[in-house]
Structures are given as structure tokens and as C-alpha cells.
Amino acid sequence: MQPVHLHRVNAEANMARFYHVNIAPTLFGEVSVLRSWGRIGSHGRTSVETWATSEEAETAAALALRQKAQRGYFAAL
After folding, report:
1. C-alpha closest to that of 75 among 24, 3, 23
2. Residue 19's CATH number
3. Single pTM value for the model
4. CB-side exposure of 34: number of CA atoms within 13 Å?
5. Please, which residues have CB within 8 angstroms of residue 57's CB and are 6 or more apart in sequence?
6. Over the Cα atoms of the chain, what is R_g?
7. Domain residues for 9?
8. Distances from the Cα of 5 to the Cαs of 10, 29, 71, in angstroms?
């Protein structure tokens, strides 16, 4: 899975947010889902979830992306 960067911008509500998801292997043979989110222009927050297999990690990443799309996030250009 390629890194995915999403945006959600609403000028009327003064909202400018980003959401970034990436999958990376660990040194111990597991796979991590790296998620970052926050206001555009800030460092934001980061979360790391570690899974035993790449299939589990991709399922978790896909679920997070689907939830964000339902909330109005779209792929950044």
C-alpha cells in the first residue's frame, strides 16, 4: 500500500485538517500502520498500530481510510 494523504477543508467552519496513513515493516517481522492527523500547517498527532501480518495491517488501514472518506476527507492532490 502506498502512503495516503487526505484533506478536509471547510472555510466556513475554519476547518483545515489532514490525515496520513502509511504501512511499514518493523525490525521484528511485524507490520505497522502509521497514522498522522491534525490541522494543516501543524505537526499534528501520530499513532502506530502493530499487526502480525501485512493483510491485517492493510485491513486496518483500509478501515481507517473508509471511515475518513465517510466523514468528508478527500485525497490531496
Report:
1. 3
2. 2.20.140.10
3. 0.88
4. 12
5. 23, 31, 32, 33, 49, 51
6. 13
7. 4-71
8. 17, 25, 15
